[in-house]
């Protein structure tokens, strides 16, 4: 892989040169906070690279690899061997490019991973991982990260972030929308008072949000999965809450809709950005759910209820706090245009892109998916306000995807100029590219 990978023209190379060294702001990821706080030393390359990465697990399953070598009891070396067998067959999949970039940029290995090179790469990387220069902290330092926001739940200990310059929690709020007796018990103990009503619950959540804010949190995240519907049945939500915290059946749509609107008002008052991940169909294979757990890499893209999402945003806008900055992440590529259009349906004086299309997400964060998002934002919204890239990943090495995105963006912009769709104004295009790759996201975190 040469220095001009994905950059097909001199203009693309010039644009990339203007953004390649910008710091990284990664506003949504699933990095293991415990590994960061403890500065984990990884036992071997599989422990770092394969064990926690559902992207790789999914590809291996598609290629027919036995689960024994993916999440089963095979040794880490055997799992690495199987992954090495798979990589050459992944040409065309973004994993092939990411593997090449990760080996080169993190370990300075410039040979392809395959069965012939498997042992040499395994031994070389494992030797490096034993050095002080390859602890979790040192690996992350290689990526010039200005801000990384690992997901934390409302009850998580976020004290680590108190004095951190480059890391802040991002609130993962799915459990807040679906309260259980266990959550209520844990939250009551943390906040120091009993939660017996919706008012108690919201007071407890507000206390925790204030603590998150103090340690740098500026982003929340909620999954509006396939089948999400919005209802404005406010009064009935209180009864549904009582049922939920006593472990009884309740109307999920009624309760989630009410809590989400209340949360959005709190986010707006604290100037947070609310992220809504839309349309994942997470329950596919019962067999893989039992084997790999709920985040095992087997989810599919579902359909989105845009009438419900619009009603949700409208309800948030009509609260005392108003609608917070909101980023919509459609998982189904067919929904991208609809999401870009919604960005023009809500506004606030003096606020750029109050609602906007998020980066290509999950199965879409590849060359084709990124270009699709760029086309839709440029055509239906305003490209210069785009928030740019985030990894949404559990693997430390995935920060190379920012470089991948910057290359795709630069080449896409250059193609538009060459086709005479965009003005041949290098400085203007550099300004837009730099906004997308860094400055727009930097504004959101102050």
Q: What would you say this structure looks like, in words?
A:
The structure is a single chain. With 446 residues, this protein is α/β, with parallel strands linked by helices. The chain is built from 19 helices and 9 strands. The strands form 2 sheets. The protein has a 7-stranded parallel sheet with strand order 1-2-3-4-5-8-9, with helices on both faces. It has a two-stranded antiparallel sheet with strand order 6-7. Strand 8 (325-330), helix 16 (336-342) and strand 9 (355-357) form a beta-alpha-beta unit. The longest helix is centred in the C-terminal third of the chain and has 19 residues, at 400-418. The two termini are 36 Å apart.
* Poorly predicted runs: none
Number of helices: 19
* Overall body shape: globular
Strand content: 5-15%
A few lines on this structure:
This protein is α/β, with parallel strands linked by helices and 446 residues long. It has helices spanning 10-19, 33-37, 45-49, 54-62, 76-86, 94-107, 118-129, 136-141, 174-177, 181-191, 198-214, 234-245, 252-269, 286-292, 306-317, 336-342, 367-380, 400-418, 426-444, and strands spanning 24-29, 145-152, 170-172, 219-224, 273-278, 280-281, 300-301, 325-330, 355-357. It is globular and about 65 Å long.
């Amino acid at each position: 892989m040469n220095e001009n990978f994905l950059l097909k023209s001199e203009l693309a190379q010039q644009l990339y040169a203007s953004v390649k060294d910008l710091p990284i702001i990664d506003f949504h990821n699933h990095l293991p906070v415990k590994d960061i706080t403890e500065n984990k030393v990884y036992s071997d390359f599989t422990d770092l690279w394969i064990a926690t990465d559902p992207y790789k697990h999914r590809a291996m399953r598609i290629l027919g690899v036995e689960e024994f070598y993916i999440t089963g009891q095979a040794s880490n070396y055997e799992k690495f061997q199987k992954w090495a067998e798979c990589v050459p067959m992944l040409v065309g999949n973004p994993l092939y490019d990411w593997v090449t970039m990760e080996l080169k940029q993190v370990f300075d290995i410039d040979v392809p991973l395959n069965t012939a090179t498997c042992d040499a790469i395994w031994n070389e990387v494992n030797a490096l991982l034993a050095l002080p220069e390859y602890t979790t902290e040192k690996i992350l330092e290689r990526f010039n990260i200005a801000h990384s926001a690992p997901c934390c739940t409302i009850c998580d200990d976020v004290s680590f972030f108190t004095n951190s310059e480059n890391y802040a929690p991002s609130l993962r709020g799915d459990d807040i929308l679906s309260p259980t007796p266990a959550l209520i018990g844990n939250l009551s103990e943390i906040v120091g008072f009993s939660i017996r009503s919706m008012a108690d619950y919201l007071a407890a959540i507000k206390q925790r949000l204030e603590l998150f804010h103090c340690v740098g949190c500026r982003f929340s995240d909620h999954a509006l999965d396939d089948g999400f519907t919005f209802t404005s049945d406010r009064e009935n939500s209180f009864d549904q809450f009582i049922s939920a915290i006593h472990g009884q059946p309740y109307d999920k749509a009624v309760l989630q809709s009410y809590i989400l609107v209340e949360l959005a008002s709190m986010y707006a008052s604290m100037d947070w950005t609310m992220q809504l991940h839309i349309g994942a169909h997470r329950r596919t294979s019962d067999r893989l759910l039992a084997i790999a757990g709920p985040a095992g890499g087997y989810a599919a893209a579902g359909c989105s209820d845009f009438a419900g999402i619009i009603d949700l945003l409208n309800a948030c806008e009509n609260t005392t706090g108003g609608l917070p900055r909101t980023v919509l992440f459609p998982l189904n590529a067919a929904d991208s245009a609809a999401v870009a259009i919604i960005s023009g349906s809500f506004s606030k004086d003096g606020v750029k892109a109050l609602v906007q299309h998020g980066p290509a997400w999950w199965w879409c964060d590849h060359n084709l998916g990124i270009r699709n998002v760029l086309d839709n934002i440029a055509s239906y919204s305003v490209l210069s306000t785009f928030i740019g890239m985030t990894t949404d990943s559990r693997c430390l090495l995935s920060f190379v995807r920012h470089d991948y995105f910057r290359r795709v963006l630069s080449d896409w912009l250059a193609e538009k100029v060459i086709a005479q769709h965009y003005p041949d104004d290098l400085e203007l295009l550099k300004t837009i590219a730099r906004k997308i790759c860094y400055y727009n996201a930097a504004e959101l975190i102050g």
